[in-house]
Amino acid sequence: MKCSEIMTKNPKMCTPDDNVSIAIGLMWDYDCGSIPVVKDMDSKELVGIVTDRDIAMHVVKHAFAHPCEVSVGDCMSKNVISCFPEDPIESAMKAMELNQIHRIPIIDQNNSCIGLVSMSDLVKYLEGMNDQIIAMMKGIYGRQASDQSKMKEEEKKEDTEPIESDEKTESDKPSG
User: Which residues, given as ranges, of the chain have pLDDT below 50?
Assistant: First the structure.
């Protein structure tokens, strides 16, 4: 499966010149922890990413600077790890693991941000894979499991049924 199949398309973005209150507002309104930063809204050329943690750390580091006085460009990460839409999901997962990041922008050939893959996107994908694997296993092993279950039921019946014998016991013989 490809990144394009699970990514959030057209994520909310901001520019380096926006103040962080805009990024914070987007994060709050859209319940996300990061915003791709683009050169301008027309080209959407990816130049960075800003996370809630980046903003918090910058504000604290600079003696609790007021968010309206801090630009996104002041606290964004500039070395952005990204993937292409045709990259396998496993590539995004590996990049996230190696770089210890929770979200990865998806860019096109022009470096324009067209999507975002988050940990929650990956969890949904993996849950779906689990369901597919379970269904496949049921298909493969379902018949065998059903046959084995029937055999066990028959064995139980055999264990509980009295054994019939042609031989007569002492009590069955006529007295005389």
Answer: none
